[in-house]
Amino acid sequence: MITINKAKEIAKYVSDFANSRFEDIDIFYRTTHRDRHYGIYQLKHGTVLMDFLISIHGNMEEKLNFPCLLPTVFASPNQLMEYLLWLRTYIVSHQDYINDNISGDNTSYIIVELSHISNDIISMIDYVKQWYDADDDNIPYLEMRFCLNSQDIGKFIAYLQKIFASISYAINKTSEGAYHSNLHIILKLLGFDIISEDETNAGRIDAVIKLSDIIYIVEIKKADRKDESYMALQQIIDNKYPQKYMFDGYNVVALGISFCTKERNINGYKSVVIYTRDSCQ
After folding, report:
1. Three-state secondary-structure class, residue 178
2. What average pLDDT score do residues 126-143 get?
3. CA–CA separation, 261 and 84 (whole Å)
4. If residue 84 lies in a helix (H) or strand (E), which one and from where to where?
5. How far apart are CA 190 and CA 176, in angstroms?
6. DSSP code string of 12-46
7. Less Cβ crowding at N or C end of the chain, within 10 Å?
8. Cα separation of 2 and 70, whole Å?
């Protein structure tokens, strides 16, 4: 859970970001809107780009350009984070309209400025997201969560293998259920939001790991030596487990994990991105 001090620091950072840039954005918005008929409207998708600039200006002015965002504008840190993620998705959904107008040295200054504003806001949100998700008091958690946020699943699995290698042989049972339990306990103790045996209309998902904007659907298989991760991944797809979360505003990743009973550790994994927030735009 995010601490009060950390929430205040994040809110202040976002507020400072908006305050430091709003004057320039406001001037650009007003001059572009004033000259729109022989400026931005002459570009490809000119009307869409003007509406996009109006929306960016409005969001900065009405939502972010305040000295105190919590709890004046947003009731909770979660609400602030949800808004920022929505704003990021909205900006990304308009990048193609900007890119269609890029033509080297002949690119309009309007497009250059729109691209600069968009990239700045996206970079700010990405930074805040990593900060929000980080647990500074739990280094393994911090590293593993960063891996999942950046979808570096290979490194995440390597951390898990190291943890499982440290579990005593005497208590490391080889049943599939024991691996489920061990994985749940390990991730829960590290601070992850994990749900085991999550029920759907087609069966039970072994584990669901939730981050601020990513959900991992995890299925586990065990075998003597063979890597069964593909079968685990295929079970997720065949049973359509991700459907439960596809329209909740998350990126959804399916992750199949194979446990080797001989090695008493993970011996393989397979993953695939099932759904992205941007795909609904």
Report:
1. helix
2. 72
3. 44
4. helix 77-92
5. 21
6. HHHHHHHHHHHHHHHHHHHHHHHTGGGTGGGSTTH
7. N
8. 14
Give the helix/strand (H/E) hosting 269: strand 265-275
Sheet containing strand 251-260, edge to edge, reads: 193-200, 203-210, 214-223, 251-260, 265-275
Whether the pTM exceeds 0.70: the reply is no
Highest-confidence range of 50-59, 64-73, 151-160, by mean pLDDT? 50-59
Interatomic CA distance for residues 23 and 86, integer angstroms: 23
Is the Cα torsion angle 175, 181, 185, 191 positive or negative in sign? Answer: positive
Which residue shows structure tokens 């805040």?
128
Strand partners, 260: 223, 265
The answer as to CATH 2.70.98 being correct for domain 141-280 is: no
DSSP for 93-161 reads TTHHHHHTT--GGG--HHHHHHHHHHHHHHHHHHHHHHHHH--TT-HHHHHHHHHHHTT-HHHHHHHHH
Helices and strands, counts by H and E, the chain: 9, 5
Q: Taking each helix axis from N to C terminus, what angle separates 139-149 and 176-190, rounded to the nearest 10 degrees?
A: 110
Question: What are phi and psi for residue 206, nearest 5 degrees?
Answer: -55, -45
pLDDT of residue 170: 42
Beta-bridge partner residues of 135: none
| Other C-beta atoms lying within 10 Å of the C-beta of residue 257 | 26
Domain ranges within the chain, ordered by starting residue: 4-133, 141-280
Query: pLDDT (tens digit, 9 = 90+) per residue, 84-122?
Result: 999 999 999 999 999 999 998 899 999 999 999 999 999
Phi, psi angles (nearest 5°) of residue 70: -115, 125
- C-alpha 234/C-alpha 231 separation (Å) is 5
Encoding tokens for residue 43?
A: 């570009």
